[in-house]
Write a structure and sequence with these properties.
The protein is α/β, with parallel strands linked by helices. The protein has helices at about 55-60, 85-95, 115-125, 145-150, 155-160, 170-175, 200-210, 235-245, and strands at about 1-5, 15-20, 35-40, 65-70, 105-115, 135, 185-190, 215-220. The chain has an eight-stranded mixed sheet with strand order 1-2-4-3-5-6-7-8, sandwiched between helices.
């Protein structure tokens, strides 16, 4: 496969790696290849990087798809409240995808894991060009509920990323909360039933609320945990990959 790093912004984290298959893909058409934009998890913390999604990018390319593995602004102990930069980076990376040669932009998808799942769902609700499909793996869909449950190692990741408590700016939290923002694209929810990092109730809540609003949301519950669904050696990942290929 071919891998090209593209720096699309001036900041060191404003880059993405494009993975292209080196085989004749059965999914190619006159417009190019379908592409999956990948958004990594890690509770929006700077210690976690796009390397988390590298194996998935490689596996997608080996299956005949393009993959666009992005990096974005994350918070750290010296700099919190970076949500605006994070969203800007994700939306700009999504926009950059439309400029790449060999990509069928009409069949471009977004897939995010954990906090990246939250970003994928917000993109599916707010992006000017809607994705063909949004795939959310163990997503954080209810930020207020996640803050109340103190998800993440120190229990404060959501408010550190946003920069305030829910009661200090309810409208801001709602604007960033997937469960408050119906998607304009089909959504495929993936969750491991044994997930103890982001409980499956996060996905169940989103599915229930969005189906009541008439959104196209499909669920795939798997027997694994938070990490088996991004482990390309796992049976869980094989189910996810086949679901993506079936969409094509």
């Amino acid at each position: 496969m071919a891998v090209d790093r593209m720096q699309w912004g001036a900041e060191e984290w404003q880059f993405a790696d494009l993975y292209m298959p080196d085989i004749e893909s059965p999914f190619a058409n006159e417009h190019g290849l379908p592409c999956v934009m990948l958004i990594h998890g890690g509770f929006w913390k700077s210690e976690y990087t796009s390397e988390l999604m590298k194996p998935i990018a490689e596996d997608l390319a080996e299956a005949g798809l393009a993959a666009w593995n992005i990096e974005f602004k994350r918070w750290n102990d010296q700099e919190a409240g970076v949500w605006m930069d994070t969203l800007s980076d994700v939306l700009r990376a999504w926009g950059q995808l439309a400029l790449l040669p060999g990509i069928d932009i009409m069949r471009s998808m977004v897939m995010g894991h954990s906090a990246g799942g939250q970003l994928a769902l917000i993109l599916a609700a707010k992006a000017e060009r809607k994705p063909w499909l949004a795939i959310a793996q163990a997503p954080i869909t209810d930020l207020v509920g996640a803050d109340r449950a103190k998800l993440s190692d120190d229990g404060d990741a959501v408010r550190r990323w946003i920069g305030c408590a829910p009661e200090e700016d309810e409208s801001l939290w709602s604007n960033l909360n997937p469960v408050d923002n119906p998607p304009v694209a089909p959504v495929l929810l993936i969750h491991g039933e044994e997930d103890d990092e982001v409980p499956i109730e996060q996905s169940e809540t989103y599915a229930r609320v969005m189906k009541a609003k008439g959104s196209d949301v499909q669920k795939v519950w798997l027997p694994g945990d938070h990490y088996s669904i991004i482990d390309v050696a796992s049976d869980d990942w094989l189910v996810i990959l086949n679901a993506i290929l079936d969409w094509l």
